[in-house]
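Complex record, two chains
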Amino acid sequence: MNMQLVTGNHAAGHSMSLAAEANRNARGSVCGIYPITPQTEIVEFVARQPFSKGKVIPVESEHSAMGVCIGAAMNGARSFTASSSNGLAYMAENVMVAAFYRLPIVMAAVNRTLGPPWNIWADQGDSLMFRDFAWVQLYCDTNQDVADTTLLAFRLAEDPRVMLPVMVCMDAFITSHTSMEIELATQDQVDRFLPDCKIPHRLDPSHPVTVGGMTMPQETLTHRTDLDAAMRSVPAVLDEHRARFRDIFGREVSGALTAYRTDDADRIYIASGTISITLRDIVDEWRAKGEKVGMIRVKQFRPFPAEQLAELCRGVSRLGVLDRNYSAGTGGIFWQEVRAQLQGQGDHLVQGYLVGVGGGDVVPETIREVVADLGKRNRAEAPIWKGIEQ
Amino acid sequence: MNAANPEYASPECLLRPGNTNCGGCGMSTGLTMLGRALANERYSLVIPACCGIVAAGAFPTTSYSVPVLASTFASSPAFASGVAAVNQLNPRRDHQAEHVICWAGDGGTYDIGMATLSAAAERNEDIIYICYDNEIYGNTGGQRSSATPVAARTTTTPGGKGETKKEIIEILAAHHVPYAATLSIAHPEDFQRKIQQALKIRGFRFFLIHAPCPTGWKTEPADSVELVRLAVRSGVFPLYEVFDGVNFRINAEPDGTDPAAYYARQKRFTGQEINLERVKTATRRKMRRLRQLASMNQ
């Protein structure tokens, strides 16, 4: 066992570097890098590695960092990067291109509040702006989850049934800069877990095609339905690779949804990221008081595991969704998604709670208030803001 | 595309017949000359948003005989850096080079792509970057760019542009790139020689092609080559090259031709008070500066 006390950033950088090295017998690996707080340590970690067949390119912007990844992946290399917040916003155009070109790029997204006003603390609004960009999105809770999900992300992205980019998200500072003792993968394990990266549509001078030229609406429609089919293949493929992960690494890596004490629950709370760790403790606390509460941690936001969620929530009348993100004029984005996906799946009261938007600490007492509020409700209202000082 | 005609299947034919480019398009002639110069080379093109990517035609056909990667508007040097990095990691067994060539318009080069271009030049990426400069956003119907010359009418400068164009070669030279040069489609031998020169060098190489756009310049398609010939002879578009950012060499000295002839044949300069004395002075000053730089070669 290779247990070490490391930060979330270290965990991501370590896994990405092992994945990069694992492609040394194929076309190699390329990482376009650009600093932004709080992800900078990830690209610094990668830049220190002596890859046997890899290149780290320090560019002038996030837009170009993703541009380098796109060019490298289009030439057959394993490609990856990391960013946060306004850096992700600046990168946006090429983020979309990566998916629309069906390139299996992996990006660590350290969720940080979008500015202005400038704020470096946790908020998922940055990566969630890409929810319609055809990237698989996985939101991690612990440092172990970051390390393992990053490896899983490469396996999933490069699976020929998927061939889509994957974003591995973690909370700014709470995960990125906080150390936890975790088990780090070894190169030998990663070599066994990740086959050579093969990109079937890579540039080939003996078969010259133009990638990304004009298409008419009919061909564009085919492109979009192909993207949809690839996205829909993700849940089964992810679980397949989780099983393989368990065989090689000897531990579980969490899947799309993690249900906790939901079997006989009459109320279920839904959260993602580090908030779900605290929520779990509060569920135990309220179970001890005899309350039938349960929780679901959502890891995979895209594609959204709608059927699995509906199954877990069947017959449960009240659902509370905790969001550390906010779409102005509506509410939390996970809340919107849960409501939309459960439409027609039974009679649920779905109440949204905005907790820790803009990076405020989500302490146990905040979650106790949320849990108590839903317990008293017989109808839902507009999402409730928590943490606003009166 | 006529696959049955062996001429069109030859490696020289980079831009194949059947493309929908305008008559007299300087970019198209530039592509033809580039294809001839690279007939024996293996290469890919990275093309940002511009007439160059529209020239490929609609999926699933393509007018290009080499692999082409379409990039976002500002990104061709970044995409190309990624492609080139993987080529370096995977040298061919026969040691033949695989070139990566950016083919971009002036909007993608002087304007939106400037930061990306500057960064790739500073990193000395192993890329050949070619800007076909039609001094306008041609693909969107003729708006001003920072490459548009002073006084030219465009759809966004209906009264004529007030500012002078950027000296892009000198900007690239200031990055100390191994090679930067201008190309004219009226000087095919010089064009060929400079591309061959670039192939002998690794690292960032930059070319600027003066590329008439009859649609945007309001000129006769048949005049395109004559116009750029006049631009070279009058000093409006000097042919020169820069090695390592410091060694300047003028390839064709202006022969005293009055630049008035160049301006008079373009309707983008009509209806405006074009101060030709000012243009001539600027041209003389530029040539004097180039000669000074050329005299200081190390």
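Note: The two ends of chain A are 50 Å apart (CA to CA).
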